[in-house]
Predict the structure.
Amino acid sequence: MKNRLNFWYGIAAITIAALAVRVTWVFVARRDFELQGDDFFYHWQGRALADGLGFINPFAWRGLDELYPSAAHLPLYSSFLGAVSFVGGTSPLTHRLASCVLGAGAVLVVGLTARRIAGDRAGLLGAGIAAAYPMLWINDGMLISESMYALVIAGILLTAYRLWDEPSWTNTIVFGVALGLGLLTRPEAILLGPLIGVPFILARRPEWRPRLAKIAVAGAIVVAMLAPWLVRNAVKFSEPVYLTSGGGSVLQVANCDSTYTGQFLGYWDINCTTADRPPATEEQEQLLEDSEVPGLVYLLAQDPSDESIPDAEAREQGLDYIRDHLTRAPVVALARVGRVWGFYRPLEGIDYDVFFERRGRLPSEWGTGMYYVLLALGVYALVVMRRRKKPISPMIAIAIMVTFTVATSIGITRYRVSADVALTVLGGVALDAIWRWITARRQTPATPEPEPEPVAPNRSALLRLPRRRDRPA
């Protein structure tokens, strides 16, 4: 009981410290940060939800005073900001601080996951790593969905390991809900269902049928959670929109001449999108000067009333470019994967994180250095888990998901956030294993010096000993 209380006191202290780190980051570097892209979208869509306007295009709302539906991003993070706005937290600063709460929650769940894998000490070490890791707390001041995604991914890992250990129906339902929340945050989470579910089914062959039934139930829960969003998209847009209407834009900005060779190889370039667009009219330029809405000219050029149409056109343009450069596409995909895992132009990646992503120079450099350490610890942790017969497939599933996602989209650091969460869990497991090894070495008693072998008596010396009768009295 005492050890259990010590763990909860420790994890609570670490979670509070994690929140303090994130709040400090917001007040020092993000308090008055200008909203420019995704942060503008999430902030104002949250405000629109609180006002009862629904999931609208915030750029058209703020710039044109028009209410057009949008599915550019999945709804969970906007809904969270909408709830914050509904209770009075309507400023960008308040939304950033609310995102810090999400980040601190992710730290707590990371600790619980590492604890389930390797015990209390691993849980505290994993939480401590997550609290300090810049690649996580950077996101919490940027007003982007990665704050929510880090928490959800940690939850998926925790519920997955609970289901591995105790395949009950309760744990099945909770796991399905966690997967559903992941899919309502980022579209690539759709891969985690089969990547985690198939090994779970095959892990114990005599029990594969009840396990298959549990995974089917978890999948049904995911579908039920997604159904309202899918139906809404089918009603609102003329072109098919399944999860988001932003996939075409991503394909377009990632597949053109400048991203297939040269400086931006494996990255993205806005010129891929704007090169064929007509120049802005005088009226559009004037509207841009009078508005604080970013990208308004581009918004007007593509008709925001039904964003599924320009997205379908962008998707087709990106796919056409890929078809025309099939021999080059594998090289580009490898460059994207190399960028996101830090093995291709890592210093350039830091520069891009600072300039394009606005993540800050010092946190980006510190975070990159810490990432390489965690990557090494993560590999060691996987070896330790295999030796202890702990499943590693949930961790491998996340690595596969990240690799596939960036290979088909953009090699951008924040697309690695789910793997960063997994690395903090593995870091706690690895440090705990190292601690155990050191402690065991110290407690092993020193090897005693060997006893000297008895020397055989010298026969000639025995013969020279005086007889009893010859000894002096």
About this structure: Confidence is low (pLDDT under 50) at residues 459-466, 468-473. The CA atoms of residues 355 and 361 lie 9 Å apart. The two ends are 77 Å apart (CA to CA).
